[in-house]
Amino acid sequence: MPELKIILEAVLLAAGEPLSLERLLGVFPEAERPEREALRAALAELATDYTGRGLELVEVASGFRLGVPSAFSSWVSRLWEERAANYSRALLETLALIAYRQPITRGEIEAVRGVSVSSGIMKTLQERDWIKIVGHREVPGRPALYATTRVFLDYFNLKSLSELPPLTAPRDPNLVGLDLERRITTSSGSSTTRTESPDD
Amino acid sequence: MPELKIILEAVLLAAGEPLSLERLLGVFPEAERPEREALRAALAELATDYTGRGLELVEVASGFRLGVPSAFSSWVSRLWEERAANYSRALLETLALIAYRQPITRGEIEAVRGVSVSSGIMKTLQERDWIKIVGHREVPGRPALYATTRVFLDYFNLKSLSELPPLTAPRDPNLVGLDLERRITTSSGSSTTRTESPDD
Amino acid sequence: MDTPLQPLAKVDGEPYTQLPHDLYIPPDALEVFLETFEGPLDLLLYLIRRQNLNILDIPIAAITRQYMDYLALMQELRLELAAEYLLMAAWLAEIKSRLLLPKPAPIESEEEDPRAELIRRLQEYERFQQAAQALDALPRLEREIFVASAEPPHRESTRPPPPVGLVDLLNALREALARAELFDRHPIRRETLSVRERMSQVLERLDALRFTAFTELFQPEEGRLGIVVTFLAILELLREGMLELVQSEPFAPIYLRRRG
User: Fold this and answer.
1) Residue B175 and residue C120: Cβ atoms within 8 Å?
2) Rounded CA separation C176/A110 (Å)
3) B74 vs chain A: nearest CA distance in angstroms?
4) Do B164 and C104 count as a contact with CB atoms less than 8 A apart?
5) Chains contacting A (3 or more CB pairs within 8 Å)
6) What does DSSP assign to residue B145?
7) pTM above 0.95, yes or no
8) CA nearest B144: which of B153, B130, B127, B132?
9) Residues of B in contact with A81 (CB under 8 A)
């Protein structure tokens, strides 16, 4: 017959709920039933055995219970981690505009999206360390200029921004937006992309 | 930070269900994630630690699980009044046929048992999540093909179907010859093969 | 194998653990017993085992008689007799009669022993009876083994940041740009330049005899829109065969003239 404390360990592990002294005594056939004192002593021994282990013996109102110490809660919590919610379309569009059109002001993002960009979105992106302020546009109000970070590149497995997938132009390049407009007249790089559009 | 095996112990105890290697790895933040090999080694250590204790580490179909060894079942079962469900012969025979002959149709089960299989049995087995429909046989009526699940294996403490107790061979492989009778002089080997497995 | 049927019944307070060797059992005791058969194959296996017979060597005549006796009893007890039992009775009778037929001629000796199929089915069923027992004997959860668990610690609510794919990013940008297009178009304004109008203007400027440099047709002060419209007008005129376009070599200046 196994040692008393080992039987108690097995019973407590199988129970998965607090067990009173009476219930613990009840698992032994009458002839083998230990004294209450012996039971208490065995439980105390168990508690000592668990020092430095992933479980502990706790006495609660309804009896004795085995538990996982709170020191392990970060690992245990990750077991049931809720699946990450998806980012909103607004956030993704904002991030995309910053990635492809950086450096860009919030006003410029709003001009393209046609709606205002919430501060929450900018905050989330900054907290995730995907975007940062790289300067200010020298226009009235000196709006901040946003750009993506190295963390952003790492996350998407990119060595540099030039590895971003090419953006095929919308049908009419004329209508893309202020920032774009400015660039097209000056740089030929982006207009090369434009000419690929089959619709013109 | 606690030792790897101690974290695993805590997580497995808190989970109370089998955890795959992937899920175990998932409880570590990316930066601290151990190698699969290290994880396996820690699990092996744990299993050794439990020698002589009231718990054991078992690998079942869906992963690793901590369990109370059957040596303690007499004490543990006294915790509850008659909790262990006993299953009817009809249910066990049906389950055995599905386990050994999967995928199998209800008609094929009935052909071996010589009686119709009650819908209640199929329902019970499905509700317990022990069997599932895995397809349909492409014959008239497209009868459903049944197979056992991981839950079934987990429940019976098995890692895979190959761990099922071996099916006894028919007593006499040459049975159809019926040499005993000497009434008929031929040995019809072709029908012998039929007894092997009607599904092959 | 012992069938897990015992104790069979109590008759006059006496528990029966073994069926009497003769068939006569008080009917009310038998009822319970008969109902526990899992079907005709189960009943036949029981009869064979009861007499310690080898499945391979069943005396068909004797077994058939016993089977029929049980059936008669079941009918007497008005048990719901499943069709399977009656089918088996018919089969047994058929086997019996075929065995009684005169010895087959040599040519027909390839024919199977009429009992072969029955024996095959009995053996197959017996295998699965044993498999079912083996399965039942396996230690299983909640009976011999129990999941070991301990109360989980208080949970920290952790929510990982959502994953984002590069494609998501690209799609988001496309959508934003597509919407931007709609936005920009909405302010209704008169189209300042129409391609048709510009086609006429281009034609006016061109001569049927003299070539005109392609670049001369564009007026930078009109802006991008003007340039695009002029370009479209030229393309349309070429398509309609109203212009002739000449370039002496790649990258050389392009010249245009009107088709006469």
Assistant:
1) yes
2) 10
3) 8
4) no
5) B, C
6) E
7) no
8) B132
9) 26
Looking at the DSSP bridge assignments, the partners of residue C256 are C212, C245
Residues 6+ apart with CB under 8 A from A119: none
Dist CA B26 CA B81 (whole Å):
38
Looking at residue C10, what DSSP letter applies? E
Q: How many beta-carbon contacts under 8 Å exist across B and C?
A: 172
DSSP C58: -
Inter-chain contact B72–A19, Cβ cutoff 8 Å? no
Mean pLDDT, contiguous 10-residue spans, chain C (260 residues): 47 51 56 79 90 84 89 78 86 88 60 82 93 92 89 73 79 80 54 69 82 84 80 84 82 81
Q: Which residue has the higher pLDDT, A136 or B63?
A: B63
Between A89-101 and A106-113, two packed helices, what is the crossing angle to 10 degrees?
A: 120
- Which residue blocks in B27-184 are alpha helix, DSSP H? 36-49, 73-77, 89-101, 106-113, 119-127, 150-155
Inter-chain residue contact B75 with A19, CB threshold 8 Å: no
**Cβ neighbourhood burial of A101 (10 Å; 0-12, 13-18, 19+):** buried
In this structure, how many other beta carbons lie within 10 angstroms of the beta carbon of residue B34? Answer: 16
Q: Distance from B123 to chain C by nearest Cα, in Å?
A: 18
How many other C-beta atoms lie within 10 A of the C-beta of residue C67? 19
Long-range contacts of C3-6, Cβ-Cβ distance < 8 Å, separation of 24 or more: C3/C46, C3/C49, C4/B89, C5/C33, C5/C36
**C195-258 maps to CATH 1.10.10.580:** yes
User: What angle do the packed helices B89-101 and B106-113 form, to 10 degrees?
Assistant: 120
So what's the ipTM on this one? Answer: 0.63
Give the closest-approach CA distance of B170 to chain C in angstroms: 6
The residue whose two tokens read 């027909």 is: C108
DSSP chain A: ---HHHHHHHHHHHH-S-B-HHHHHHTS-GGGPPPHHHHHHHHHHHHHHTTTSS-EEEEETTEEEEE--GGGHHHHHHHTPPPPPPPPHHHHHHHHHHHHH-SEEHHHHHHHHSSPPPHHHHHHHHHTTSEEEEEE-SSTT--EEEEE-HHHHHHTT-SSGGGSPPPPPPS-GGGS-HHHHHHHHH-SHHHHHHHT-TT-
Structure letter (DSSP) for residue B70: G
Decide if C146 and B76 are in contact by the 8 Å CB cutoff.
yes
Q: Which residues of A touch B7 (CB under 8 A)?
A: 54, 72, 75
Q: C222 or B56: whose pLDDT is higher? A: B56
**By mean pLDDT, which of A83-87, A130-134, B26-30, C239-243 is the weakest?**
A83-87
Number of H helices, E strands in chain B: 9, 5
CA of A44 to nearest chain C CA: how many angstroms apart? 17
Per-residue pLDDT at A50:
96
Question: Which residues in chain B are closer than 8 Å to C135, comparing Cβ atoms?
Answer: 92, 95-96, 99, 156, 164-165
Nearest to A77 among C146, C156, C164 (CB): C156
> What chain A residue is nearest to B12 in terms of C-alpha separation?
A76
The domain limits of chain C are 30-100+113-137, 195-258
What backbone torsions phi and psi does residue A160 show, to the nearest 5 degrees? -150, 170
Q: Read off the amino acid at residue C235.
A: L
For residue C55, the chain B residues in CB contact (below 8 A) are: 171
Contact at 8 Å (CB) between B39 and B31? no
A/B interface, count of CB pairs below 8 Å: 98
A149-164 confidence digits (pLDDT tens) = 988 988 888 888 888 8
